Amino acid sequence: MLLRLGTELDKSAILEKYPYTGQVMGDGGCLIIAEDENQIIGFLWAFMQDIPVAVGEKEMFINVVEVFDSQSRCKGIGSAMVTKCLSIAKEEAYYQVRAYCSIHNAASNRLWLKNGFAISPVKMPDNTIPGSYVTYKL
Ligand SMILES: CC(C)(COP(=O)(O)OP(=O)(O)OC[C@H]1O[C@@H](n2cnc3c(N)ncnc32)[C@H](O)[C@@H]1OP(=O)(O)O)[C@@H](O)C(=O)NCCC(=O)NCCS
Q1: Which atom of ligand 1 has the smallest separation from the CA of 63?
Q2: Residue whose CA is closest, atom 42 of ligand 1?
Q3: Which one of 18, 38, 48, 107 has the minimum C-beta count within 10 Å?
Q4: In terms of pTM, does the model score above 0.90?
Q5: Residues whose CB is less than 8 angstroms from the CB of residue 4 and which lie 6 or more positions away in sequence, other chains included
Q6: What is the distance between the alpha carbons of residues 62 and 74, in angstroms, rounded to a whole number?
Q7: CATH for 2-137, among 3.60.15.10, 3.30.2160.10, 3.40.50.12230, 3.40.630.30?
Q8: Distance (Å) from CA 77 to ligand 1 centroid
Q9: Gap from CA of 30 to ligand 1 centroid (Å)
Q10: For ligand 1, mutation pick of 66, 98, 119 (most atoms within 8 Å of CB)
Q11: What is the pLDDT at residue 110?
Q12: Ligand 1 binding pocket, CB closer than 6 Å
């Protein structure tokens, strides 16, 4: 398995093969590709922004991380992409890396936990918890 930065061509290839990824992948940003035998087997896409409160720092927000084939999951590929993203964010001197994780997505919750992210559950006014913001302070 090879990890590399993705190009606009890679983004188009992913969008063409998996059209639903258009809902979570926007223009620009940071694309990380996991490749095996010249096939894209997974990707992570993050965007950069000012932290949306008045602290004067920037963050990377991982909008999606996915390993396409369920047979390829639980082999550390998701973690490898997250680790690569953290090292890019560190090089760029971002303050933190953040993502949002649904309460129903057990694999995703586990992914963030095992990679050292703090888990901040979001409590709604009716006391339900739809998910958590997860944050890695660089
Ligand atoms: C989330 C995802 C990217 C993780 O990728 P991965 O390559 O399997 O990640 P890793 O192998 O590094 O770690 C996955 C961890 O989740 C655990 N896991 C997987 N399915 C699980 C489940 N149903 N319940 C609990 N833990 C689960 C694995 O055991 C592993 O933890 P461990 O190493 O402590 O055993 C992958 O499951 C996926 O593509 N899911 C669909 C897309 C998605 O939901 N993305 C996240 C939101 S954008």
Answers
A1: 48
A2: 66
A3: 38
A4: yes
A5: 32, 33, 35
A6: 19
A7: 3.40.630.30
A8: 9
A9: 21
A10: 66
A11: 98
A12: 64-67, 73-79, 105-108, 110-111, 114
pLDDT score, position 20: 97
Label residues 96-130 b or e (16+ Cβ within 10 Å = b). bbbbbbeeeeeebbebbeebebeeeeeeeeeeeee
Closest CA to 81 of 102, 60, 95: 60
pLDDT reported for residue 92: 97
- C-alpha 31/C-alpha 45 separation (Å) is 5
**Quick one: which atom of ligand 1 is closest to the CA of 72?**
7
Question: How remote is the CA of residue 74 from the centroid of ligand 1, in Å?
Answer: 6
Residue ranges of the chain with per-residue pLDDT less than 50: none
DSSP summary character for residue 114: H
User: Closest ligand 1 atom to the C-alpha of 73?
Assistant: 8
The domain ranges of the chain are 2-137
Q: Give residue 104's pLDDT.
A: 97
